[in-house]
Amino acid sequence: MAVPTGPVTASTDAERAMFDFVDAYDRAYETAALEHGLSVAQACVLGRLTRQIGMRELADELGCDASNITQIIRRLEARDLVRRRPHPDDRRSRQIVRTPNGTTLYAAFEESFEFARSAVAKLSAREQDQLATLLRKALNGTREPNS
Amino acid sequence: MAVPTGPVTASTDAERAMFDFVDAYDRAYETAALEHGLSVAQACVLGRLTRQIGMRELADELGCDASNITQIIRRLEARDLVRRRPHPDDRRSRQIVRTPNGTTLYAAFEESFEFARSAVAKLSAREQDQLATLLRKALNGTREPNS
DNA sequence: ATAGGTACTTGATTCAATCAAGCATCTATC
DNA sequence: GATAGATGCTTGATTGAATCAAGTACCTAT
Hints:
2 copies of one chain form a homodimer.
Chain A: H1 13-35, H2 40-48, E1 53-54, H3 55-62, H4 66-78, E2 82-86, E3 94-98, H5 100-112, H6 115-121, H7 125-139
Helix pairs in contact in A: 2-4, 3-4
Chain A binds a DNA duplex through helix 2 and helix 4.
């Protein structure tokens, strides 16, 4: 289990609430992944494979080195969760797709990762809107949301 | 850089906002740590050392194996950021304390990690309260906040 | 006095992440 | 059309986090 990020002594109540929320989110994600024999990185990669996508493209999206992707994909492929197929037009490139196994497993993972769903479900429609608005406002300019 | 956790296709707008927020938070934390030559785990451990604390205690707080702490502390100690002193009453135990170096570096790290501060600063006092309340309400029962 | 528990360490293993170097292929330019 | 440089991916090496099993030293309760 990864160690909880974030300051122990948050200055304000709101900061503390953010930290607790982020920590809970991260832990829930990791727990759900482990329940299905996936690491965080593996679950994350598997989740991106909704469309055919190249290694390079994936590395760029995740903001990491291409060689990192190579090894993560190799492990997923060894478990028949993912397959590499040649790119039709560019023979350097490999298109990655989930196998039926991979799709099934990822669906099960998402089912386990009820955190966000469950969190939202505790709020009224109006509160959900408020929360989304506040989070976006708090985020805006602090760091760009994931592209 | 760690890979972004979270679903790419969040079902609702609120879920999407949560994911973006958590992702931004985690990335900001890691970036700030790296700026000071710390890993995420190292920054986290260093941040917990506001009081004298034993290895076991630290491992329990972080929810990881004691041997994990041993090696993280060893690396911090090698950089003179942390020191291990014998427990006055229990000779099995080691009390960990930050060195002046460690305290200085951690302060610099917290200065760099402006994410939470900056996020809060974008909201009015009333909005801050609202956000904290909504986050806690969304969290409640989903997963216990960090003890 | 000793049996069992506790605190920490060591060694082994797995995985993530990064870097440097290499191969195959593509593309722009001459 | 040849070729120089860029691009896509892989390999190998290294570092660090995390977990597990096993071991040592020490404490505690009987």
